[in-house]
Design brief:
The protein has about 160 residues and is mostly helical. It contains four helices and two strands, in the order H-H-H-E-E-H. Helix 1 packs antiparallel against helix 2, helix 2 runs antiparallel to helix 3 and helix 3 packs antiparallel against helix 4.
């Protein structure tokens, strides 16, 4: 089985990120539940929930990216990879929505479009574009699998 260079290192980093984010998300969730009575406002509660959702989404993204990187050179064009790219895309779009919602409560970063009480942040737009790109890549990999199967039959 042929391996892709530096695959082991990338997988180590992604799996480490996945395990770290899983533990971080669990501890943060438990910490919020334990200290539920000390939360002073609804805005503070929304920010904490958004932080947990964001950490959970980063965990989901690290897992799916590790699944994509884990394949060998002969199984790159597979339905599994296509589905993982689609999940990655939807995860990035979800992350862009969380990022934009949290911007209502915490003003920071650069504005792309700024109106009186709302603005569109750069990170949200970038996450959204990357999400759409990953969904498109999902279709490309599905078509790549079809073409590969066609070529395998033609001998």
């Amino acid at each position: 089985m042929k391996e892709i260079k530096s695959q082991k290192y990338v997988l180590f980093i992604l799996r480490s990120a996945f395990y770290f984010m899983t533990i971080f998300t669990l501890f943060w969730t438990v910490g919020i539940l334990v200290n539920l009575g000390t939360i002073k406002s609804t805005g503070e509660m929304v920010c904490l929930v958004l932080c947990v959702l964001q950490a959970g989404d980063y965990t989901f993204l690290a897992y799916n990216l590790a699944e994509i990187v884990e394949c060998n050179i002969y199984t790159i064009f597979s339905i599994k990879n296509s589905n993982n790219f689609k999940k990655l895309g939807y995860g990035m779009i979800f992350l862009s929505m969380i990022e934009e919602i949290s911007n209502f409560f915490n003003e920071s970063g650069f504005d792309i479009v700024a109106l009186k009480e709302t603005s569109l942040k750069t990170t949200s737009v970038i996450f959204f574009i990357i999400g759409l790109t990953n969904i498109y890549l999902s279709h490309v990999f599905k078509e790549g699998k079809r073409i590969k199967e066609e070529n395998d039959l033609t001998i």
